[in-house]
């Protein structure tokens, strides 16, 4: 109790009562039957900043205020919170881009020795970004189109009209990353790696009270002890370790193959890994990334880029199935553009994608910890339990702050009175956002986060979604089954979950003649 409990400076900030000392509000936040059930009600009651209890009486600040979010996302005073840091370590290892802190800088940080780490993140990110610029992503269009037509073929060949689209989209998005980034066809990725990736998704779908408690305890362990515990031979840890090892081995094999190809005088620039290795005729890296650094990014790119895009697409298709008029309008727009398929110039298609990202940010809460005492500005005053109004919040080093992405994206003050409705039309007259703060790399949304760790692959994801949606909607119509029981739950990321507790989203898929 003494270890876990520390006096906070945020105690006077209002928030819901905690139903339990052990779990605080975490069960309501993380295990509600439908994501947001409690969170959105709390936002309505307490405003854009409120206080919640974590396990064992620890307090966290839930923030959806735009000025505060802008500060937190971009400030060097915050880093990934310990639970997230542990997950990142387990899934991706210490050398991956996301593990390298990106926000430390010399003039603000007392940790001068960390300067090189900040530089490391910046230069690694700049190197990897070569494969994610607008021009590079345009070059992947044919890969997306090939994967989309493979997907439609599978749907045509399905023996049943009601199809769970989750595994099909997971495989399709994995295959595009395999080809664009690694230069590997789905067959080359290896059955074991594909199965392990799918296994990780299943594990992630098993959020439970036990997991919440385990996270609360392990987040307080010193890093060395957590890393030692991560070697325990439990089935879950074994699967995660195997997935990370297989991804590294795959990356390493590709690096060796590229070097050998360069020695044989062959062109190795056809995919991102080849470009980044930048080998000369002797197979030695010239000014590209070192082979082991590149191989260490394989797990991150495979996992971060696959399920995120697949889940956004699944949830978007469910909305189309729910809204037949929108589906018909979108199909007409696609038909009218069938010749050119200039995806960026199709207003409804892009409005639909933005609205899907707004309503269903697959990472709806992203936790940070304050690295030092700091003051968070607010765009609107909040009233403390003492009746005092404040326009900034002082927080102490070690305070957990939740970037409440989903709540921000439903703020009525920024998105309008119908912020909780799925309404793509809000984007048709320009930006749907009415605030002054520039947040996130795309459409003022935080679905791809913002700041130094914003999503590297956001253009990749948007282009892939444009192409998949066009191909699917012009070939099929989608409807929800009558007995639709799917709920959107938070299981590390947002996920459609069926009544049996498994990930899944069955839709009635009918070919269009
Ligand atoms: C709809 C699809 C996607 C969503 C919603 C999404 C969301 C995010 C978010 C929220 C983060 C920040 C995580 C954090 O630091 O707490 C992130 C980081 C990242 N994403 Fe994505 N992502 C998507 C697709 C992709 C794709 C397709 C790729 C690659 C092919 C990708 C690669 C990455 C990488 C490498 C990072 C780490 C960046 C860094 O730490 O500097 N993502 N993404």
From TrEMBL:
Its cofactor is heme. It is found in: Membrane. GO terms for molecular function: heme binding; iron ion binding; monooxygenase activity; oxidoreductase activity, acting on paired donors, with incorporation or reduction of molecular oxygen. Keywords: Heme, Iron, Membrane, Metal-binding, Monooxygenase, Oxidoreductase, Signal, Transmembrane, Transmembrane helix. It comes from the Eukaryota. GO terms for cellular component: membrane. The keyword Lyase does not apply. Gene3D superfamilies: Cytochrome P450. Belongs to the cytochrome P450 family. This is Cytochrome P450. It comes from Mycena metata.
